[in-house]
Structures are given as structure tokens and as C-alpha cells.
Write a structure and sequence with these properties.
The complex is a heterotrimer.
Chain A: H1 2-22, E1 32-38, H2 45-64, E2 73-79, H3 84-97, E3 103-104, H4 109-122, E4 126-128, E5 147-149, H5 154-167, E6 172-178, H6 181-197, E7 200-207, H7 215-223, E8 228-232, H8 237-247, E9 255-257, H9 264-270, E10 278-281, H10 297-311, H11 318-337, H12 342-347, H13 349-366, E11 378-379, E12 384-385, E13 401-406, E14 409-412
Parallel strand pairs in A: 1-2, 1-3, 3-4, 4-5, 6-7, 6-8, 8-9
Antiparallel strand pairs in A: 10-13, 11-12, 13-14
Helix pairs in contact in A: 2-11, 3-4, 5-6, 8-9, 11-13
Chain B: H1 2-7, H2 9-29, H3 34-57, H4 64-80, H5 86-108, H6 113-133, H7 135-138, E1 144-145, E2 151-152, E3 155-156, H8 160-183, H9 185-195, H10 197-202, H11 207-233, E4 235-236, H12 243-256, H13 261-285, H14 287-290, H15 293-307, H16 312-330
Antiparallel strand pairs in B: 1-4, 2-3
Helix pairs in contact in B: 2-8, 3-8, 3-11, 3-12, 3-13, 4-5, 4-6, 4-11, 5-11, 8-9, 8-11, 12-13
Chain C: H1 3-34, H2 41-58, H3 63-87, H4 94-116, E1 131-134, E2 137-140, H5 141-163, H6 165-175, H7 177-182, H8 187-213, H9 220-233, H10 239-259, H11 269-294
Antiparallel strand pairs in C: 1-2
The chains are: A alpha/beta, B mainly alpha, C mainly alpha.
Chain lengths: 414, 334, 295
């Protein structure tokens, strides 16, 4: 008897899921459909969650203000749980079932690489939020005609850091990186670029994402007499590193981190030991210090205020900003280059393909200073974009600034 | 021969119907879901090996995803870095995985129950760490791309439909072989082990050897599935072969029914559908629930195992059998 | 490797090891009394840390009240887990129980992620942010709390199991369930108590570690695994050996880092725990096998 009941219950739950799937479109106005792939849970969650939050916020705002050319927009977000294979499956779903006009995301480099071929074969623009330059670098099999990415690429971040170190006459550094993708990528770039800047690495240590302390690694580092420590990783590692350095009395050795610490939670977690930490980053943390003439200032201020208002004080961060930039590019393309109505797109595959191509062309040809001459390019949270046929990232090194934490606040570093 | 046929006639009919169903699925019925159908085929292969192990020897392996992964990575590395033909790469990967399973099988199967489970768990995680760390070969956490398609002569398996048929051909063969194992002498020996190791030993069955053989078979199946997976997605990364992947395979086996070959397919289908499709669709129409997809997954795991410990398929089959029996009893004599 | 580095690795190893020991004790208690491996054990550690932080933040509680309430809540969750999930499954097989506890772990982790987000949180230190110097190495005051708590727990458990009726009943259930049942021990209650105590231990560990290691919703998995290794060293029976095992594991990990030698760089530190696990299981396999047959 109990078994029958349970079987019935199980069947009902399964059955309930299916009809629910069908009845999502009861609106009178058909929307423009944009796809989004984010790692909201799993290893990349700290990056993916704000990306999703941003998209939800932006979608509401656009629709509240009349949509795109009078039509509503629907951003379909799939959480691929930091699993590249799931990312690929959901990408296919977006392309073939949901028939979106463009895809923004994924969150991570590996995940993006997993779907660049799919984007090429399906001829749909993919505007990634991941920082690996390999995503947009042409290869033998894929010229990345359809792929763009909006964060500052990690190799450029490292170069910006090294530039800064040289201005401080720092040439001997110790590396402390975490063993996850972000940290490993940093380590590869840090070692890869050191020769070009004349930097020597006195110690190269790593730590695990769940480590309680890095005291052993830091003692080894201290004994190698570096002029500075460079820590590359996402929370909580760098906060623990900062605290450990204070514990070991390494106050005369400056700590440089990656943009992975551009979260309020780093400052709270590191406490007083966070003061003096310097990291390269987009302009968001120091937006209040920007001159009014800076083309990004108004945009960044609004982004930060809206995000904080909706999700809590101090939550606005650069990773949500990458989603903002990607989505904004697609929305702008739809506004300026696409006059097909959503009804037409949703009913005709030919129109859908044509619109996808139009969006791609717009991003490559007009998200730059010829499309936006007054601002010298397309302003975004990461920088002012100048996309071209050969550059599908479009960001110059100058979009990165050095930020220093002083008294628990982000300030520009000299 | 005829006797065997007569005894199992309904299962041959069911098989024929199933094959027809498989052919119709991507072409007539559920074309857009071809990717999901492919995944179901792959996971069926991985799960059936586990089913054999778990259902017939009562031992559990929490590291099945490791073999899935070695099949995928070895095949990928051999066909990209060393330019080997994908078929050869897949074969070599299967052999290597099989040998690996054989070597670790003997020491590991001296353990039982929870201890065996934990040893396989540890093994699975070590292999996963190797996938992440040996970046020179595996591409590290970002994974390995550019994996070529299978091809025979000039015919390349370059679209989903072709790969669907390729993969399901493998899956069906794997299932048939597994079914033969179950019905053979070895199979009856396996059933005996689950019953009582002492009794089985007393009639001269070498249990240790048998357990390892099944373990190796399961590993080879998983390896083949992994290679097919790699040449289907064209890009693989370590996160697809972590502990959660092993958990998913176990769930498929348990949801379907541990001691049942077809239960493996059923379980693979159900869990793949739930995690890749149903939860996502549910999330689209009810955005609040979208955030709870992980929570719901955990909840479903618990509920299925608490209330249907024999798995959905076996419970359904049992229910069907008892219904048939009751009807037979009522029968002509009222 | 200089003396300074070596001593530092010992000190850090001791701290980390105590954490593994506390978690391992939770595994051991549940397993010895009920025969179940509780995959959700790591989640109790996570809950301890997260609850103490959010209780302090939103309810404005100070450290020790927050600690007590966090542990109480975790104990409640542990009891509910046992009653609703384990006991309902009745005579389920090993596989079923493993999957149930895994499902519970995923469920708890998911709810935590929903409630508290993915961000890392830093609960306040118990007695401030100071550190001491020991033979040239640094040890944080919170680390002293960790070591002290582990010591206190081991003493309390020993007293509990040896001198109280409940403790003796637990011990009896652990040694032989059937026999214990025959002499009037309510084995079902013992299982419930085991789960509750293990949840309390896990949460206590979580509360005392979190200020030092920071915490977030998904720390449970890795910590649980390391604690499991500690428990396996203790054979899932001996508390003393579990604690020693956990400490040894922590020290071995840190010494590996200190060695700083070629392939054994800190990258592979995570694999160390697992290799240790496999070795321990293989070495003990013969004895474990005979024990299983006996029961």
C-alpha cells in the first residue's frame, strides 16, 4: 500500500514538471530572447551568482522602461553548476529549443572553451564573461568569428600589475596561488610574463581552497627574501594570506593580490590586515575618485547604486559588471541594428539566423569608437570597449587601475 | 537454443520494441532532445557496469566517474596530442582502464561494505586531482579541447544524429552483453555471492576473482562511454568527473534498481532527464524554484532511496508482477 | 628546510589536525553505534560556523551564546536527519543509506547556499586577533582555542563513555548491537543520541575553526573528507586513535608543504589525505574483514 502511494507520488511529481514546462509564454507581447549561462553554484559560484543577479536586475529595468524598441526582453538564465559538460548541453538548449538571438556568459574560461565550437557551428554570437584570452584567440579549427569576451583578460591584468611593480622598483617577488582554475591561470600568466618585465620569482607556493592557514608557505616565502608577495586566488584564500602575513610580522613586505579580491567580503574578512593590499582592477571600486569627464563614471555609479540598493550594501562587484557589459552589448545591438520583431524571429528560423548574424556584426563593427565617437568607444564597467575584426575583447591596459585598501576602503594607489 | 528462446521470448520482443523506439526517438518523437538522449545512452553504459557490481555482488563503488574520466581523457589526449585515430585511442583507453581496474581491484576488493565504498571514493578523487594537476597532458582545470570526431573511411560522425546512433549501438551491445553475463553461469554465481559468500565459496566459486572481473567489466564500459563522450562534446574538463559525477551514477543505479540491467537504463534516463531538463524547465516557469535546483536534487535523492529502496524500475516491475499474479489467481476460478 | 619552517609546519599541522580530529570523532561515533557512514557530517561543521556568524550578526549575540545556540540548532538538525531520513528507511542497504546521507548533504548545502549566499564570511575571533610565538613559529590565539577544545572534547567523551549510564549504553551499542539490545539497551534511542552528539561535535568544530579559516556554504565536502580519513585511521572505533590520526594527517600535510621538494609541492597536498586513506584502508582491510564477518 505504502509502495503504491510512493510510486504514485513520484509519478505525479515527474508529471507535474512536464506541463509546467510548456506554459511559460502567456504574455500577449512576444519578447526578444537572450540566453545566459552562469555558474551560479559549484566552484565558480562567487563569480556566477552576481552575474545572474545583475541580469535579473537589468532585465526588470529594461522591461520597466518600455523594453527594446517597445518589445519586452526575456533573458533565459541556465545555471550549469560549474560543470563544462552541462554548460554545453544548456548551450544547445538555448540555441535549438529556446532559439535565443545571442548567448552571454559562461562564467569560466574552461566552460567557455567548451562551447566556442558550438557557437561557430550554430552561428550564434557568444559574449563570454570569462577572462581567458584563449577564448577569443583564433585557432586552426575555430577563428572565433562568433566569440567575444568582456572582462579584462587575465594576461593583461598580470601585465598591468608588473608595470606597477616596476614603478616601485620591485623586481623580486614571491608567488602564492590557489589550486583552483583562477589561481592556476594566474600562476601561469605570472610566470609567463615575468621575463618580459625583468621580474624574478624567489618562491612559488600554492594553497588549497579550504586551507586553514598558509603560515608554512609564508614562512618559506619569508625566508626567500622577496620584495613583495603576489597572491592570486578567490575568497577566502587571500584574506587568510593577509591575516597570516600580519601574524608572521611580514609588515615590511607589501601584498599584491588579483582582482579576485574586489569584494567587500575581502575587506571584512581580512580586517586590519587588509589595509595596504594593492590589486589591479577595473575602475568600479574607485568610481568616486574618477573625474566627471571619465566616460565610465556615470555608468559605474549607477551600476553600483542600483546593485547595492537591490541586493544589499557593498554587494556590487566587478563580476556582475562583466555580465552587465555582455548583456548591454546585445541589448544595444538589438536596439540599433535589428528591426525584426520578436514575433517574426520566433516564427522563422531564417530570420533568427539573420538576426544572430546582425548582432554579431554590430558587436564587432560598432562596439567601438566609430559606433560611439563621443566617448571614444563603448563605455562599460570593465572599460571603454573598442571591438574590431582582430580584437574581440576590445579593452586597453589603461582600463585597469591599481587599487589600494586604506582604512577598509578602496582608494587609487599611486 | 529454442528452449532459451521460448523462455525469454517476451524479453526478445521487448528488445525489438526498444530498438524500434530508439530509432524513432530522435527522428520522429523528440528530435530537439537528441543531446539528452545521447547522454542517457552514455550514462546507461556507465551505470550498467555499476549495476552489475552493486546489484550482484552487493558491493558499492563511489568512484565510477574515475573510469568514465580516464576513458575520456586518455582517448582525448591520444587523439589530439599524438594524432591517433579516435577508434584506436578509444580502444587503448579501454585497455588501459581495464588493466588499471584489474591492478587495483584485487587489493581494494579485500575490503567490504562501507570500507570498500570509501576506498573507491578516495580513488575517484585522486584520479580527479590528477586530471586537474597534470595540466601538461590534460590541460588542467580548463580542460582539453579540439577533440576530433569518430570517422569510418570518409564518413565522419559529425552531427548529433549520427553520434546518437553510434553511441546507442555501443550502449545496446553493452546491455546485451551484460544481460548474457547475468544469465550465464557467471551470472548465477554472482547472484549466489550476493546471497552468501560462504555458500558460494563452498561450491568452489572464486569470489575474489569474480568481483574483480565484474569491476573490470564495469570499468571498461565506463571507459568506452567516456571516450564516446569526449568525441561527442569535443571538449572535456575535470569537473565532469568529480565526486558529484560518481554520486550521479550511483543515483542512476539506485533509482533504476540495483540488480537490474534495464533498471540501469531507466535510472539513467530518469536522473538525466531530471537534472538536465526537468529541473531546468521547472526553473524557467517558476523562477523562484530555479534557485532551488540543487536543493531539489538532494531532496529527490533522499526521497527515492527512502521510499523506493529497490529503485523505480524494479518497484514498478514488482508492482506489475504482483498485479499479474493477483489476476492469475483470480483467473478462471472465481 | 630550516628549523623555523619545520616548527611552523608542526604548529600549523597541529591546528589543522585538531579540526580533522573533531570531525573524525563525529564520523566515529555515528558509525560505531549505527554502522552508517554519515556523508552529511561535513555539513554540520559548515552549519556550526555559518550559524554562529549569522546569529551574531542578525541577532546581535556575542560569541559564546551564539556558539551554544548554533550547536543546539545543529543537534536538532542532526536528530531530524536521523528520524526523518534514516529511521524511516528502516532496514535499508548500505548503498541506500550512503545515498540518503549524500542526498541530505546536498540538501543541507543547497539550503545554506540559498539562505546565506555564496560569499565567504569571517566570524569574530573568540578572544581577539593576537598570536603567540612558539620556538620561532607563530600560533594564533584562536588556534589555541581549537587545540584546547579538542582536548576538552576528548576528555569529556572519555568521561561520558566510561562513567555515565548513557555513555556506557552507547559504548555497548557500538561494540555489539544485538547483545546490547538483549541486555535492555534501547538501540534506537542510542542511534538518535549518536547522531545528535555527532552533529554537536561537528558544529562545535565548525564554530571554533570558522574565525580562523573563514567559512562559506560549501566547505563541508572537503572538511568531511579529511575528517573521514581521520576516522578511518581510528578504525571507526577508537576515539583516541581518531584524534591522533587527525593530528597526524594535518601534520603530514603541512610537512609536505615545508619540504618544498620537487613534485611534492603544495599542489598535491590534497591528494595526501586520500593516499593516506587508501593506505590505511588497505592495511586494515584484513582486520576490518574479520570484524564484519564476526558481526
Amino acid at each position: 500500500m505504502r509502495k503504491w502511494f510512493c510510486l504514485l507520488l513520484a509519478m505525479m511529481i515527474l508529471a507535474a514538471a512536464i506541463p509546467l514546462a510548456g506554459c511559460s509564454e502567456s504574455e500577449s507581447e512576444e519578447p526578444y530572447k537572450i540566453g545566459a549561462l552562469f555558474a551560479v553554484t559549484g566552484g565558480n559560484a562567487p563569480l556566477g551568482e552576481p552575474e545572474k543577479q545583475l541580469v535579473e536586475m537589468m532585465e526588470e529595468e529594461i522591461n520597466a522602461n518600455g523594453g527594446i524598441n517597445g518589445h519586452p526582453v526575456d533573458v533565459i538564465v541556465y545555471n550549469y553548476e560549474s560543470d563544462a559538460a552541462k554548460c554545453a548541453t544548456f548551450a544547445e538548449k538555448l540555441i535549438n529549443e529556446d532559439k535565443v538571438v545571442a548567448i552571454i556568459g559562461p562564467t569560466g574560461t574552461g566552460d567557455s572553451l567548451a562551447i566556442v565550437d558550438l557557437a561557430m557551428n550554430s552561428q550564434i554570437p557568444l559574449i563570454s564573461c570569462a577572462a581567458g584570452i584563449s577564448i577569443v584567440t583564433p585557432t586552426e579549427t575555430n577563428d572565433k568569428h562568433w566569440v567575444f569576451t568582456t572582462p579584462q583578460v587575465s594576461v593583461m591584468v598580470v601585465q598591468r600589475l608588473y608595470e606597477h611593480l616596476l614603478t616601485k622598483n620591485i623586481t623580486k617577488i614571491a608567488l602564492l596561488t590557489d589550486t583552483l582554475g583562477f589561481g592556476k591561470d594566474g600562476k601561469t600568466n605570472l610566470n609567463g610574463q615575468k621575463a618580459a618585465y625583468g621580474i624574478t620569482v624567489t618562491a612559488d607556493q600554492t594553497y588549497g581552497p579550504n586551507d586553514v592557514d598558509m603560515l608554512t608557505q609564508l614562512t618559506l616565502i619569508k625566508n626567500s627574501s622577496p620584495q613583495a608577495v603576489v597572491c592570486w586566488g578567490t575568497s577566502p584564500g587571500p584574506a587568510i594570506v593577509a591575516r597570516n602575513m600580519a601574524t608572521l610580522g611580514m609588515t615590511n613586505i607589501p601584498l599584491y593580490c588579483s582582482h579576485g579580491i574586489a569584494f567587500q567580503s575581502f575587506i571584512t574578512a581580512a580586517g586590519s590586515s587588509g589595509n595596504g593590499v594593492i590589486f589591479p582592477c577595473g575602475k568600479l571600486p574607485i568610481v568616486d575618485y574618477l573625474p566627471d569627464s571619465d566616460p565610465q563614471k556615470a555608468l559605474l555609479t549607477k551600476y553600483r547604486d542600483d546593485f547595492n540598493a537591490r541586493y544589499g550594501n557593498g554587494t556590487a562587484n566587478t563580476f556582475g559588471g562583466h555580465a552587465y557589459d555582455s548583456l548591454n552589448m546585445v541589448v544595444t545591438a538589438l536596439k540599433n541594428a535589428v528591426d525584426d520583431t520578436p514575433e517574426k524571429i520566433n516564427s522563422s528560423d531564417d530570420t533568427l539566423q539573420a538576426v544572430r548574424a546582425k548582432i554579431r556584426d554590430y558587436v564587432e563593427n560598432s562596439i567601438n569608437s566609430s559606433g560611439f565617437p563621443e566617448t571614444g568607444g563603448f563605455p562599460g564597467t570593465a572599460g571603454v570597449f573598442n571591438m574590431s575584426e582582430t580584437d574581440h575583447n576590445g579593452l586597453p591596459k589603461s582600463c585597469l587601475v591599481m587599487v589600494k585598501i586604506v582604512d577598509g576602503k578602496w582608494t587609487p594607489a599611486e | 537454443m529454442l528452449a532459451t528462446f521460448k523462455r525469454h521470448w517476451w524479453s526478445y520482443l521487448a528488445m525489438a520494441a526498444f530498438l524500434l523506439f530508439l530509432i524513432l526517438l530522435p527522428t520522429q518523437l523528440l528530435g530537439e532532445k537528441t543531446s539528452i538522449l545521447i547522454l542517457i545512452g552514455l550514462y546507461s553504459m556507465v551505470t550498467v557496469g555499476l549495476c552489475l557490481l552493486m546489484g550482484y555482488t552487493g558491493q558499492v563503488s563511489l568512484g565510477q566517474a574515475a573510469f568514465f574520466g580516464t576513458g575520456a581523457y586518455l582517448s582525448a589526449i591520444l587523439s589530439t596530442r599524438y594524432d591517433l585515430d579516435p577508434w584506436l585511442a578509444m580502444l587503448m583507453a579501454a585497455v588501459a582502464t581495464g588493466v588499471f581496474a584489474y591492478i587495483i581491484g584485487y587489493p581494494i576488493f579485500r575490503l567490504r561494505g562501507n570500507y570498500l565504498a570509501m576506498a573507491t571514493l578516495g580513488l575517484g578523487i585522486i584520479v580527479w586531482i590528477l586530471f586537474k594537476e597534470l595540466s601538461q597532458y590534460t590541460g588542467g582545470p580548463d580542460g582539453l579541447g579540439g577533440i576530433p570526431n569518430f570517422s569510418i573511411g570518409g564518413f565522419a560522425f559529425d552531427n548529433k544524429l549520427k553520434r546518437y546512433f553510434l553511441i546507442w549501438s555501443f550502449a545496446v551491445c553493452a546491455l546485451l552483453i551484460a544481460q548474457n553475463v547475468v544469465r550465464s553461469r557467471t551470472g548465477r554465481a554472482l547472484k549466489a555471492i550476493h546471497g552468501s559468500e560462504a555458500a558460494a565459496m563452498s561450491v568452489g566459486i572464486n569470489i575474489a576473482q569474480l568481483k574483480v572481473k565484474i569491476f573490470v567489466l564495469g570499468a571498461v564500459y565506463a571507459s568506452l562511454a567516456g571516450s564516446l563522450y569526449a568525441h561527442h562534446l569535443h571538449h572535456i574538463s575535470p569537473n565532469s568527473f568529480d565526486f558529484m559525477a560518481s554520486v550521479m551514477v550511483i543515483t542512476m543505479a539506485a533509482a533504476g534498481g540495483l540488480a537490474s540491467i534495464w533498471g540501469a537504463v531507466f535510472g539513467a534516463a530518469t536522473i538525466t532527464y531530471i537534472s538536465q531538463d526537468a529541473l531546468v524547465e521547472l526553473g524557467k516557469s517558476q523562477p523562484k524554484l530555479a534557485e532551488l535546483d540543487v536543493v531539489l536534487y538532494g531532496l529527490i535523492l533522499m526521497l527515492v532511496m527512502i521510499f523506493l529502496p529497490k529503485g523505480l524500475f524494479v518497484s514498478l516491475r514488482d508492482a506489475f508482477d504482483s498485479w499479474r499474479q493477483r489476476r492469475a489467481r483470480k483467473g478462471p476460478v472465481t | 628546510m630550516t628549523t623555523e619552517v619545520f616548527v611552523q609546519s608542526l604548529v600549523s599541522g597541529l591546528t589543522q589536525g585538531c579540526i580533522y580530529a573533531l570531525i573524525g570523532l563525529g564520523f566515529t561515533i555515528i558509525f560505531s553505534v549505527t554502522g552508517i557512514i554519515n556523508f552529511a557530517q561535513g555539513e554540520f561543521v559548515m552549519l556550526g560556523g555559518m550559524l554562529s556568524f549569522f546569529l551574531a550578526k542578525s541577532a546581535g549575540l556575542s560569541v559564546f551564546p551564539a556558539l551554544i545556540i548554533s550547536i543546539l540548532i545543529a543537534m536538532l538538525i542532526g536528530a531530524v536527519l536521523y528520524l526523518l531520513a534514516i529511521r524511516t528507511a528502516r532496514r535499508a542497504s548500505v548503498v541506500s543509506l550512503i545515498i540518503i546521507t549524500i542526498g541530505a548533504a546536498i540538501f543541507i548545502r543547497g539550503i545554506a547556499g540559498e539562505l546565506w549566499g555564496a560569499d565567504t564570511v569571517a566570524p569574530p575571533f573568540f578572544t581577539g586577533n593576537g598570536s603567540l610565538s612558539v620556538l620561532g613559529a607563530s600560533i594564533h590565539v584562536q588556534a589555541l582555542w581549537i587545540i584546547g577544545t579538542t582536548l576538552a572534547v576528548s576528555i569529556v567523551l572519555h568521561l561520558l563513555f566510561s562513567y555515565t549510564v548513557i555513555g556506557k549504553a552507547l559504548k555497548a551499542s557500538a561494540m555489539n548491537r544485538t547483545a546490547a539490545g538483549l541486555v535492555g539497551v534501547n538501540t534506537k534511542s542510542m542511534s538518535l543520541i549518536a547522531f545528535t552528539v555527532a552533529a554537536a561535535l561537528g558544529a562545535l568544530g565548525g564554530v571554533v575553526i570558522a574565525p580562523l579559516s573563514l567559512t562559506s556554504y560549501n566547505v563541508g565536502a572537503m572538511l568531511g573528507l579529511k575528517g573521514f580519513v581521520a576516522a578511518s585511521i581510528g578504525g571507526f572505533r577508537s576515539h583516541a586513535v581518531t584524534i591522533l590520526g587527525g593530528i597526524t594527517l594535518g601534520v603530514v600535510e603541512q610537512v609536505t608543504v615545508a619540504l618544498n621538494w620537487g613534485p611534492f609541492k603544495s599542489n598535491y597536498k590534497e591528494a595526501i589525505a586520500l593516499v593516506v586513506l587508501l593506505l590505511v584502508l588497505l592495511i586494515r582491510s584484513r582486520r576490518l574483514f574479520e570484524e564484519e564477518r564476526a558481526s
